Amino acid sequence: MDLPYFERIPALPTVLAPSPRHPLSAAASQTSTPTLATSDALPLEMQVFSVIGGGTGANAILGAFSQSLRTTHILPISDDGGSSSEIQRVLGGGPSVGDLRSRLVRLIPESSAESPLHAIKTLLEYRLSDSASSAEAKSEWHRIIEGKHRLWAGIPNDRKECIRAFLVHVNSRILKKAQRGFNFKRASIGNLFLAGAQLFLGSLPSAIFLFASVTEIPHETFRVVPVINTSSTATIAAELEDGTVIAGQSEISHPSPPSLYPPSRPITPALRPPTPSLGRLPPSPGGSMLGGTYISRSTTPALFEARTLGDEEDEQGLEGEDDDELEAERNRNVVFSKDAIPLESRISRIFYLNAYGNEIFPRANPQFIESLSSATTLIYSPGSLYTSIIPCLALRGVGEAIATSSTIRAKVLFLNSSLDRETPDYTALDFVEAIRSACSGTYGEEGRAHRWEARDLISHVVYIEEGEVQVDTSALESLGIASIPLSMPGRRFDEEGARKALRILDDGHFTQ
From CA 60, how far away is CA 94, in angstroms rounded? Predict the structure, then answer.
């Protein structure tokens, strides 16, 4: 029941333009891939897009690809914040579905307010209240799974019972873990539906296929692909330039206030993070992250929260503990703030961890690699660089697939207009170098090392002139990268801005 592969499109003719060597890559291969020029650019209706990145920044430009021949959306599954974190905490791990659900909901075709499809969309994008008490949120959830909630109005009975069956299934799994106390505040119905489908079908792609089928998303035009095809939790970690390692996406980008203090309950002793050590060396690839290098306490249930014999009995004793303390612990990542304290040094790399704190090297989803071999345009979406884009690149085979694709005519980076905790004082060149470095990683295959040049991976940078990220167009040009400036007083990309950039790309009117 996995999503069907798109049939491969014929190889398209390309115009190869020479470009100068990457000045930052003196050790690069002498036989680097030349930059693809766009003098023979295709109209939007004939283009096949591969769009990398999740989150609100990427969702804001989705409409720009609505008229394309095909678009594949590649999303990370490592988000351990929001309501996804509660599903993982209680059910004992699993891939994060928040970004997948968010993208799927936005791909649901437009319909009239009276149509069944509009009612289904309203249900699947609905969140339980965060202002009500936990008991009130739980009561509303029960009305939904019992089929009595007002949200079911207007949904045909066949589709109602299909959706409700998977909500009931995930609820039964939550009940089996009742001692962990699921917090329904701000719970996303779409997340719970996807989680229930994934648990029942045993396949995340199959759950996505079901979601798309119920919501009439055209499979022949759009598909949503998790960057890793797994039923396990995908935990990312960031190694900083000073050797510190921070585990968990939320801890990297927006740690919740309670996580800045010691946990109220002891974590599994055997996996307790060590105290910081002075003069530590960066961890070796593939080695354990638990020895000698400090790891910030992860928000991902699978890391440092491993279930051990006796945990269930311990948790049964939580009933008598302070309710406010338990509520704070269960709510630790459901609500978070983007106004996080700055990192002590820059991020040097992003990598994946298993449940024991060891670095692992997952393979990219084959559908992701396949999309790169048939796409005509690759899009790096605006959004969090190190927690949305890089987790999709720091995988075996991805850099090579991007750099050597014979069909991709343009590889376009939509540059963030603002800086955040992950990218303090970054310039456009820093963003480009982060992508180049991630795509050049060996990821356990040292024999296949290749230091790609920036022009192999990015052909154009689209940026907002009013943004705070400094863009040196001459420096980008020296790397073989063209610049496309946009004037957007709102300082944020939107559908119209993205369409304008694609039109400029098609017409060839950019800074080069």
Answer: 27
Q: How many CA atoms lie within 13 A of 295 on its CB side?
A: 26
For the chain, the domains span: 35-77+364-507, 109-216
CA–CA separation, 243 and 245 (whole Å): 6
Virtual CA dihedral for 425, 19, 465, 487, nearest 10 degrees?
-150
* Class of the CATH-defined domain 35-77+364-507: alpha beta
Look at the pTM and tell me if it is higher than 0.90: no
CA distance linking residue 417 with residue 463, whole number of Å: 7
CB of 24 closer than 8 Å to CB of 435: no
pLDDT in tens, 229-276: 988 888 999 999 999 999 999 899 888 654 433 333 333 333 333 333
Query: Which residues, other chains included, contact 172 with Cβ-Cβ below 8 Å and sequence gap of 6+?
Result: none
Beta-carbon neighbour count of residue 25 at 10 Å?
19
Give the contacts of 370 (CB within 8 A, at least 6 positions apart). Answer: 5, 6, 8
Higher pLDDT, 325 or 193: 193
Of 445, 428, 463, 345, nearest to 394 (Cα)? 445
> Environment class of residue 270 by beta-carbon count within 10 Å: exposed (0-12), middle (13-18) or buried (19+)?
exposed
Separation CA 228–CA 78 (nearest Å): 10
